[in-house]
Amino acid sequence: MKKAMLFVVALFFSISVNAATLSLSAAGSAGASQSVDLSDNAVVLAGGTVSKAGDWNSAFTLSTDVDTPVVIEWSFNPAITAATLVFGAVGSTVSYAITEDFSFTAVLLTGVDYVLSIVDATSGAVKYDVSVSAVPLPAALFLFAPALLGFLSLRKKV
N or C: which end of the chain has fewer CB within 10 A? Predict the structure, then answer.
């Protein structure tokens, strides 16, 4: 009976693990078109195109409903000549010089609006995409405690 109860509790915890809901919105662009393809989800997608050679920029705002780690990926087709990626909370950003596809991880906090943008970019005609994915807590985290309690309760008392 104890084993069955522990199995049900472990199953309940493993099923109820959900990733955070992310919100992504366009904040403006110059020299490039921009669109948000999927917003208010565990994975948000956006992108745009630059139709002629020159300087351009594209900005998005990002937020979450719960504190969560995320993976942020920018991709360019074809590769860009030069750009600066800006990320961080509004008023407190970090900049990275990039010349190709770029991926990094970050932790987003509830109630904070984040800037996610490409500025001072130089390229020919290019298509760019940005993907932000919430990283869910593994079910193993919630299975560990009930399993440990089960092992302790099943040991024989001498």
Answer: C
